[in-house]
Specification:
Largest sheet: 9 strands, mixed
Structural class: alpha+beta
Number of helices: 28
CATH topology of the largest domain: Rossmann fold
CATH class of the largest domain: Alpha Beta
Number of domains: 5
Distance between the termini: 74 Å
CATH superfamily of the largest domain: Vaccinia Virus protein VP39
Strand content: 5-15%
């Protein structure tokens, strides 16, 4: 597949000069002219999108004395096109696309787990686990193309040695992937990630290359799973489960007029999973991926390259743009384009929609309220459909029956114009890091107006899996069959076909639960819920046993080795500022204009600090993505310690999984062990020391009592700390981590017991239809 002729390809300033037949100095002057396309950053370079630059040059005639044999009226755009036509495209071998009906190979997951085991820590060094997953994704991407870049990687992995050889190999991998991304119109991004990796030995890196070389085509999506888990993506970026993406693609494709879409669009593409599902399903229906127009907008600068690689590996030629603005803005990518299929999982606005209708923008179904974009995205999706097109959009359940007047009017207009085809309620806990209940709305172009709407309740399908719920192939098929009317009376997905009048009677609600009698006890549903709760209880019980064993062993080892510091040999007394960089949170004036309750980067407030950890709360506030990029100095990393700056002083929290790459709020202070002291102080020990009642009391005594307690970074830096030898610190941190895990496991077990009790009550009190049909003793039937 050749992708060098891609209209979205990015060019450097020198390449633009070569295409136009001018000097680089001339391009520098052009950049100062009105309307010249803005650059995008690609590592240390500035790059320009080909289509935008050529369109700008179309308006610039070449002066007569510079025509060089060109006819009068020739523009620089004409010269650039002629230059492109005479340049042979860079050909790369086509990847082997994922087969639409292929089942995942269990061995693939085992291989990816091996790569994510000890090899991860040995290869990443000072880099993060996310950087390491980027390495795996990059290697797999080059491997699936199976071209000269991969051959060079294999050759270098066999012949290189030492740290210099490892750095050279990582640099080659990053440059090769970045070049492919640039040819696809995506800004280069891998060099910045891979340069942070520090393999302990060249042999470890060689082994990673060998293992990735053995992976099949389905492994990339497993790597996306690992990336999402390790990056702790916020609600605006976590990926759509592949099973949900398959349901959306299969049903939405059936709703299109032709049944074989040639164009697909996602205005909030995340990791490209919805576009990939559509591409894969259409390929199974006989539509070659390279013939499809696959377009997306992503707001995640880090996930955008993964989306491009994901789609390219499916055989598509994707156009994925990074944009911080709303997709319905006139200047947004694809704002004037129309597509036969639109799939999207936009960020949810979970705040109450009490705002007034917005005055700006064009809203064919009514202006959405200020401060809530749920139905703004829905209208953008509808406006992006070509005649005969269809769409599927994930919406929070409350968007379907909110009482806000603007949203109710929008739903009414959508129903009256017949653009709502169906709505499916999904199970909770499908998505990472959130339990927000959601539905999928299936929409059609007004040319296919519907008189009735099908509602489906799929909340009971799926299988519990370590705190989440997953949908298997049979669950996906059950939902699709129910939509087609093939589910039968024993289907696990109750349905209802409702007229417009009936929707009006329910106050224009698009929530499936308002149209399917979900409140009357159902024996089968109650039995399923009880079985699920018992399975969850069994899992949590097993986790408690494991955690109890780990804590017992840790305490036993501590007792065997003797109490810590009996002779206080090797201990030292220091102050906190000698060990850590102490950073106060940003000012409120810097944050307030960018804060949102919707998607973005989460903020850590004092109330997020609980039991020595950072906990995600239902009302977490965020900072919009683009402003967040300018606040990197306030981001949190694994091993950081977060303390209260203003408010009720309590124990600090150690950043483990939740909280990684979040931003500090104004009212917290971050402690980060200085690089020169990494071998002197263990973050886990330091967090535990600062969490002692004596240390917390020290802070409270020094917190000023003006309105609310507050401590400055300078005052906190004077806090005394006693450090044993590093090995002793590791021992302390290990024992306390085992106890923390034990406490967390027991907490989860307690919640599972409560849920099981609720499920058992429902099971015992659900009527048995068979027994209800029997006549009571002593009475005639």
């Amino acid at each position: 597949m050749s992708i060098a002729d891609h209209g979205d390809q990015l060019h450097s300033q020198a390449e633009i000069a070569s295409l136009a037949g001018v000097s680089r100095a001339t391009v520098t002057l052009w950049r100062r002219a009105p309307g010249f396309p803005s650059a995008v950053r690609g590592g240390d370079s500035e790059l320009f999108r080909r289509a935008d630059v050529v369109a700008w040059m179309d308006e610039r005639p070449v002066p007569r004395h510079l025509l060089q044999g060109d006819p009068d009226g020739t523009t620089y755009g004409t010269r650039a096109r002629r230059s492109l036509a005479g340049t042979p495209p860079t050909a790369v071998a086509a990847p082997r696309p994922t087969v639409s009906n292929a089942r995942s190979d269990p061995r693939e997951a085992d291989r990816v787990r091996e790569l994510m085991g000890q090899l991860c820590d040995r290869v990443r060094g000072a880099g993060s686990r996310v950087d390491y997953v980027n390495l795996l994704a990059s290697l797999h991407f080059l491997r699936r193309f199976d071209g000269p870049h991969w051959d060079d990687v294999v050759r270098m992995s066999r012949t290189g040695e030492g740290s210099d050889g490892a750095a050279a190999l990582l640099r080659h991998i990053a440059v090769a992937v970045d070049e492919q991304l640039r040819l696809s119109g995506m800004r280069p991004a891998m060099r910045q990630a891979l340069v942070r990796l520090e393999p302990r030995s060249y042999g470890d890196l060689r082994h990673v290359v060998h293992l990735v070389g053995e992976l099949g085509p389905g492994a990339f999506e497993l790597m996306l799973d690992e990336y999402e888990l390790l990056a702790v993506l916020d609600s605006g970026e976590f990926f759509t489960p592949r099973s949900v993406a398959r349901v959306m693609a299969r049903i939405a494709v059936e709703n299109t007029a032709d049944g074989a879409p040639l164009s697909v669009y996602d205005p909030y593409a995340r990791g490209g999973e919805l576009l990939a599902a559509a591409t894969r399903w259409c390929a199974g229906q006989g539509v070659p991926p390279h013939r499809m127009r696959v377009c997306g907008i992503t707001h995640g600068r880090d996930t955008a390259p993964l989306a491009t690689m994901n789609l390219t590996l499916h055989g598509a030629r994707p156009s994925v743009f990074v944009s911080a603005g709303a997709p319905w803005a006139a200047s947004a990518p694809f704002s004037a384009k129309r597509f036969s299929l639109v799939l999207s999982n936009p960020p949810f606005n979970m705040s109450d929609s009490t705002g007034e209708p917005r005055s700006e923008g064009s809203w064919p179904y009514g202006p959405p309220p200020l401060g809530n974009d749920n139905l703004a995205y829905v209208q953008h999706v509808l406006s992006s459909l070509e005649e005969g097109g269809a769409a599927a959009v994930i919406m929070p359940n409350k968007a379907g029956n909110s009482a806000n007047r603007s949203e109710k009017d929008i739903r009414r207009a959508m129903v009256e114009r017949g653009v709502v085809k169906a709505a499916i309620a999904l199970p909770d806990r499908l998505f990472s890091h959130t339990s927000v209940p959601v539905s999928v709305w299936f929409l059609v172009h007004p040319s296919q107006a519907c008189d009735e709407i099908m509602f489906l309740d799929a909340r009971q399908v799926g299988t519990p899996n370590r705190g989440k719920r997953t949908l298997g192939d049979e669950d996906v098929q059950a939902v699709v069959d129910a939509y087609r009317g093939d589910g039968g009376p024993s289907s696990a997905v109750p349905t209802a076909i409702v007229t417009r009048e009936a929707v009006e009677a329910r106050d224009w609600s698009l929530s499936p639960m308002d149209h399917i009698d979900a409140h009357s006890p159902d024996r089968r549903v109650a039995e399923a819920a009880c079985s699920e709760a018992l399975a969850e209880l069994e899992l949590r019980t097993w986790e408690v046993r494991e955690a109890d064993t780990g804590a017992t062993m840790a305490l036993g080892q501590l007792e065997h080795e003797g109490t810590l510091g009996a002779a206080a040999v090797g201990w030292e007394s220091v102050v906190l500022s000698d060990l850590c960089e102490i950073q106060a949170g940003p000012s409120y004036s810097l944050l307030r204009k960018h804060m949102t309750s919707g998607g973005g980067v989460p903020l850590v407030f004092p109330q997020n600090l609980r039991e020595g950890r950072i906990e995600e709360l239902a009302d977490d506030r965020h900072v919009s993505h683009e402003p967040a990029r300018h606040l990197d100095r306030f981001r949190l990393e694994p091993g950081d310690i977060v303390c209260v700056r203003t408010g009720a002083m309590g124990p600090p929290a150690l950043v483990r999984d939740v909280g990684v790459y979040w931003l500090m709020s104004t009212n917290v202070i971050r402690l980060r062990v200085d690089d020169t002291h990494r071998s002197r102080v263990h973050p886990g020990y330091l967090a535990a020391y600062l969490g002692r009642p004596e240390s917390v009391a020290w802070v409270r005594d020094r917190a000023t009592a003006t309105g609310a307690p507050s401590i400055s970074a300078a005052a906190l830096g004077n806090q005394p700390v006693r450090l044993p030898p590093y090995a002793e610190q590791e021992r302390v941190a290990s024992v306390l981590a085992a106890l923390d895990d034990q406490a967390m496991a027991h907490s989860r077990l307690a919640a599972a017991i409560t849920d099981t009790r609720t499920a058992v009550v429902g099971r015992l009190m659900a009527p048995d239809p068979g027994r209800a049909a029997q006549p009571e003793p002593g009475r005639r039937s």
